[in-house]
Specification:
Helix content: 10-25%
Radius of gyration: 18 Å
Largest sheet: none
Number of helices: 3
Number of strands: 0
Distance between the termini: 30 Å
Order of helices and strands: HHH
Number of domains: 3
Structural class: mainly alpha
Length: 142
């Protein structure tokens, strides 16, 4: 991991989070991508983010050396043992919906009838989500 760049802060004004994508934290990267992809100019995008985002701890870096991921429960990212674990005894995999890992029945399934894939967005798997977007039921994902 020595080939990774040193930690840098988000380039967005007054943000103390760690940069992850294009010199921005994940929150601002997603936010900018959303507004820029919908033909907004940076100047016209709202300057105030969701109040929930403003309350987030800006120093949520994983405690593991040389790791740039965001910390979960316990101060570590899921790769380094943070976050909630599957309820099955002896399973150290991160839990999904319902408290179990996907191998033990956790995670949300696609809400389309007869689809056994895991839901990824809006309760749909990736294939059904794309299908719904093409049918105009949802706007394209940002």
């Amino acid at each position: 991991m020595d080939d990774q760049a040193p930690l840098t802060k988000c380039a967005y004004d007054d943000c103390d989070r760690f940069a992850k994508e294009n010199k921005l934290c994940l929150t601002h990267h997603r936010w900018m991508r959303r507004y820029l992809s919908t033909a907004y100019l940076e100047e016209t995008a709202p300057k105030v983010l969701d109040p929930k985002i403003q309350r987030m701890n800006p120093n949520r870096k994983c405690k593991a050396d040389q790791c740039w991921s965001y910390a979960r429960t316990g101060g570590f990212c899921t790769l380094h043992g943070g976050g909630r674990k599957c309820k099955v005894r002896g399973c150290a995999t991160a839990s999904q919906t319902g408290g179990y890992c996907r191998a033990h029945g956790g995670g949300s399934k696609c809400r389309q009838p007869h689809c056994a894939d895991f839901a990824r967005l809006r309760g749909l798997c990736l294939a059904h989500n794309l299908e719904a977007e093409h049918q105009g039921l949802y706007p394209a994902s940002a």
